[in-house]
Design a protein that fits this description.
With 526 residues, the chain is an alpha+beta fold. The protein has helices spanning 8-24, 40-51, 66-76, 111-121, 173-183, 214-218, 270-412, 428-431, 438-442, 466-475, 487-499, 503-513; strands spanning 60-65, 106-110, 131-136, 141-143, 148-154, 163-167, 192-197, 205-207, 228-233, 414-419, 422-427, 457-459, 477-479, 519-520, 523-525. The protein is flat and about 115 Å long.
Length: 526
Amino acid sequence: MPACFMTSTHREITVERLVGTVMATAPSIAQPACPACPDVVAQKAILEQLFDRKFVEGEYWYVLLAEWIEHLKKYLGISSTRKYYQKRVSSPPGPIVTRRDYAHTVDAVHEDAWRMLVQWYGLAEGHKPMKLIVYSYSRAAEIEHNLNSFKVMLTTSPLEDFHNVRFSKMEKVGHVEAKIRDLYRIPKSHASRLWAKADVDSDWKPLFCRDKSIGKCLEIDSDFTRPICALEVNDGDGVWSHSPEHVEANYDFPVGPLYEHNLFEDVTCAWEVDIHEQIEQIGKVFLEKLHANFSGFVMRAREYVDDRENHVREREREICDRETVTDRLNVRLQEKERHLNNEIVKCEQTISEYESRRLELEKQYSEQIETAERTLRQRQDEFDRDKTELCKERERFDAEIKKMSEIYRIQDSRIKLDIGGHQFTTSVLTLTKDPLSMLAAMFSGRHELKREPDGSYFIDRDGTHFRYILNYLRDGCIKEGVLPQSESVWRELLTEAEFYQLGGLVEYLTSLVYEKSYTKEGDTFV
């Protein structure tokens, strides 16, 4: 957990655990190395647990000089695998050193250990905290030593207009988006969303969840990968129209806030710092009082143990007297037990009688259910036969009404079409015969269509083959010999059929092109 987001509850729990460790080692308490530090034994008990922390993704670790940390371990008596200071040292290591010009060996400690070390030893002048974060690579969770270089741009930018910005793989998508908005000075009134790909050869991915880490979204597994990020800006009309090339249209809006600060910036408020300092001060005072009062506690504990021993001896005498009473009660309980066993035998007999009666009633109930189900099935069969006859009669009547309605509708729904300059006269009924076609959708009445001055409806398509489409809708099929024996005509007509979404005609023309026949008794049906 980052220091800037640690709550007071978490700090109190940490103090309680440290107190328990110090109490376990209190008999051998040594003097602290400096007035601001706990004694050496307490420091060792606290830091040994913190130094054993494993890498967990998202946690922070701090860099400090390996020579300094090894000096501290030898001073506190903590075992180490390094070869610094083979002999135990008697002096504390002094303020924390995070770097040195001639020393390249560094080590890292968990954030909780760093906070304790800064509180006890302070930070050397001229040295700054160097915070790193843990990232889960495919091989294992490790500290991220290098930030990846991202190529950022707008989706509408030319190829040469881009910026190289370094981000952590654990950085939130919301901060990357906010950084690009800041670089290109996008107004706050314009919405935006982020697209990215791990490298030049990858496909664009939408990064619309701003709370996720960008490394996990792009599946980055190396510190040297150079991802590409493109920011799509909404013009304010609510439509996303500037997606990257070769990306399917996506109208989703991003989820979550933008983050102005990166993962390594400390955004702790002043009041949080004050509360944390108060909690730490309470912990210090508590430890001091605990050490001061431990001897008195031991004396009071011994007095209490003596009192308890006297009380135990008195209780032993009372127990002997009660054992005598218990023996007499035991005899009475045995008599009651025999009486209860007799009652149990009688109850078991009664249960057996009830069980046989229950089985008899279940058998009668099953027979009655079977009889009722047979009667119900017979009535259901009769109902189904009557329903089938009624449905057939209704279908015949509906067919008759449909035929008459079609005749009236054809007479009353004449319509003129202008297909690419070719005039055609037909009826709305003919155009809507295929309910799944585009013509049925246009003239279904659900959409308002604009008429030309001469009363016709203009459709911007080639009208050369439209008469074949009208004849297909009128007859419901293509008669054999109607189409010219020309593959180019078939392909042109197939293009028009696909535009008007006439599935049956498309299937028939496709079979002609690929030499598949659907002929039956001189007529071709689709």
